[in-house]
Write a structure and sequence with these properties.
The chain has ten helices and 15 strands. By secondary structure, it is α/β, with parallel strands linked by helices. It has an eleven-stranded mixed sheet, with helices on both faces. A four-stranded parallel sheet has the order 12-15-13-14. A hairpin with a 6-residue loop joins strand 2 and strand 3. Helix 1 packs across helix 6. The longest helix has 16 residues. It is globular and about 60 Å long. It starts with a strand and ends with a helix. Threonylcarbamoyladenylate binds next to strand 5 and strand 6.
């Protein structure tokens, strides 16, 4: 198994920075999900990320920086970016902007835009500062599977394919960053995530939402089937449920269900119905249900507001057939 070290230990951060400098891979905590990091300016190191995740090379990765000044080395930020950077950085917002020549093409999968964010997790910031370079990082899971929100999830998913795992505890937000493209005239949400769309529009005014589960992805990497469990998953409303008594079923729901009896296992995301708490528990709950070798997982639809939009997006992709 890979080496797991305390992300808040200074010596561990020095070791991690050494691994990055030599072109290795370090998994690190962020407030959203754990990332699988490599030196963003080293194309061979970034190629290692794609290999470790078995990720298609058409799927660009996010560049993580410690502050807006460092972001400006890699992206060309239009004036519309300023209020967003001021309000949401550090935090769960990724901005897609035209790239500079400092970004190798493998990072952006050949696109002329780059996705950049400043994470807010203190250990992520300390790691970025210790490295002194930008870190290219997708979520630290095998491609297509549920994202990791603990160091243990990373170890289970990637094993020895990662050189070092920085353990910073469970991620506080629990879903990936919201991705907003500023490459067109009107800001466009490409992925629902940790910053609710309602909060974005209160800062930028007009914003387009380009998410959904169309047959064809709107942006590279936004595949219809993603975040998938090995156990088949369906989103079923309580009133529409038809159960086969011979099946072993796991239930994923926001609050306590009316009837517990039909289910072999139940994961309640937030007893009080709080969508932030639900997001923080989401991927862990999915993974626990998936580990039970059940016949089916049934997920109850979630309210599509606040973080619920990001959670429903993940559920719909997890439920999509190949
Ligand atoms: O919260 C997060 O965003 C986490 C943590 C580790 O920061 N990272 C993450 O990365 O979720 P990943 O690889 O799982 O998702 C990155 C996605 C790509 O699949 C793609 O949809 C989008 O970001 N992306 C990256 N560069 C892009 C670009 N130039 N244009 C459009 N979309 C881009
Ligand atoms: Mg991912």
């Amino acid at each position: 198994m890979p080496v797991i070290v305390d992300a808040f230990d200074v010596n561990a951060l020095v070791t991690a920075a050494g691994v990055i400098r030599k072109g290795g891979l370090v998994a690190f905590p962020t407030e959203t999900v754990y990332g699988l990091g490599a030196d963003a300016s080293n194309p061979i190191a970034v190629a290692g990320i794609f290999e470790a995740k078995a990720r298609p090379k058409i799927d660009p990765v996010i560049v993580h920086v410690s502050d807006p000044a460092m972001a400006a080395k890699y992206g060309i930020f239009p004036p519309a970016a300023l209020p967003l950077m001021n309000h949401f950085w550090p935090g769960a917002l990724t901005l897609v902007v035209p790239k500079t020549t400092a970004v190798p093409s493998i990072v952006t999968a050949g696109l002329d835009t780059v996705a950049i964010r400043v994470p807010s997790h203190p250990a992520a910031l300390a790691f970025l500062r210790a490295c002194g370079c930008a870190i290219a990082a997708p979520s630290a899971n095998a491609f297509g599977y549920a994202s990791p929100t603990t160091a243990q999830h990373v170890a289970e998913s990637l094993g020895n394919k990662v050189d070092l795992i920085l353990d910073g505890g469970p991620c506080s937000i629990g879903v990936e960053s919201t991705i907003v493209s500023l490459s067109g005239p009107i800001p466009a949400v490409l992925r629902a995530g940790g910053v609710p769309v309602e909060e974005l529009s209160s800062i930028v005014g007009e914003i387009r939402v380009l998410i959904g589960t169309e047959e064809r992805p709107v942006v590279p990497g936004q595949l219809r089937r993603h975040y998938a469990t090995r156990t088949p998953l369906e989103i079923v409303d309580e009133n529409a449920e038809v159960l086969n008594p011979s099946e072993q079923i796991g239930l994923l729901c926001l609050v306590e269900p009316a009837n517990r009896l039909p289910y072999k296992a139940i994961e309640i995301l937030s007893p009080s119905g709080n969508l932030r708490e639900a997001a923080a528990n989401f991927f862990g709950a999915l993974r626990r249900l998936d580990a039970l070798s059940l016949d089916r997982i049934i997920a109850r639809p979630l309210p599509q507001q606040g973080l619920g939009l990001a959670l429903m997006d993940r559920l719909q992709r997890a439920a999509a057939r190949e």
